[in-house]
Description:
Number of helices: 14
Largest sheet: 10 strands, mixed
Distance between the termini: 33 Å
Amino acid sequence: xxxxxxxxxxxxxxxxxxxxxxxxxxxxxxxxxxxxxxxxxxxxxxxxxxxxxxxxxxxxxxxxxxxxxxxxxxxxxxxxxxxxxxxxxxxxxxxxxxxxxxxxxxxxxxxxxxxxxxxxxxxxxxxxxxxxxxxxxxxxxxxxxxxxxxxxxxxxxxxxxxxxxxxxxxxxxxxxxxxxxxxxxxxxxxxxxxxxxxxxxxxxxxxxxxxxxxxxxxxxxxxxxxxxxxxxxxxxxxxxxxxxxxxxxxxxxxxxxxxxxxxxxxxxxxxxxxxxxxxxxxxxxxxxxxxxxxxxxxxxxxxxxxxxxxxxxxxxxxxxxxxxxxxxxxxxxxxxxxxxxxxxxxxxxxxxxxxxxxxxxxxxxxxxxxxxxxxxxxxxxxxxxxxxxxxxxxxxxxxxxxxxxxxxxxxxxxxxx
Length: 417
């Protein structure tokens, strides 16, 4: 049995459709036009405004009851609260949402992955999606299957939705990775880790202190950042002994737990993991930000109405693998897609298209995802592989495994034509 696991944010309509149409299956969890809100106070807009204020009231009540909350708790409530959470009640994708991603910008992003089809043609495949957002789950079902009405639903079960894809592959939805059956699997997480809750820490003369969120004393309907007056449980567990030249760091323990689980699964059952996200290699400091209508949005303003994200620290993910697997990257999206043959595919599409407008769209989309000043360098790719795929030399440099020459790792090795 071979399975594909996808992450929280939907990979987007274009790549998902491309895979289901071609007979391969890949899933994932899923930032152009302005998103416009109605200016007039119609009954509908009034109702929306009332709903938007519920999260703020909930957070203020929580802080009054228990004291300042961590950034991690704030993110968890704002994004995934089942009643008012951002991902649970909003259409967040595409031009009418709050963010747009590489696969939505250019069809070529998805097409470079279609090489999997030839490798997996004879395999028995099932698809498993870890998705906490009902809205994104509906989008995935619409793209990958014949629609929600053809699926089995069990809201209280570990598998809360199941059925078959348009190409007759078994497909299931889960809320938690731990519920996904073990076995030889390929894991794909596209903009999955950047929305997991982070803890923020600031170096002070008294040592590391956690940044918390409190009520603004002079404006009781607003929130503010404060420093914990003493060490918190999170700072003791995550950063107290940390030797870091930075004076501000962000740590996502939930990401560490997930990476440890993936590393264990891959080392025991085989397969691989590909992680694509905004991130860095342990160099950045304050990356916590919000997006609303494709624009930066103040993270503490109108909670629940905007996406919250923080760049992934890939050095932390590598550390959390605990040596169970080999890690590759992170490398920039620009280099990864070049290695996957995006330039060759672009030329083929341009030759086959006679419409000047299509030429313009293809080139514009290519520029958006490849230009280092746009998404080309900010978006990174990171992979986990079993040790028997590669070995590490005594000097710590990666070498081909002994015996017959190992094939290059797609995306992480230069394309050979």
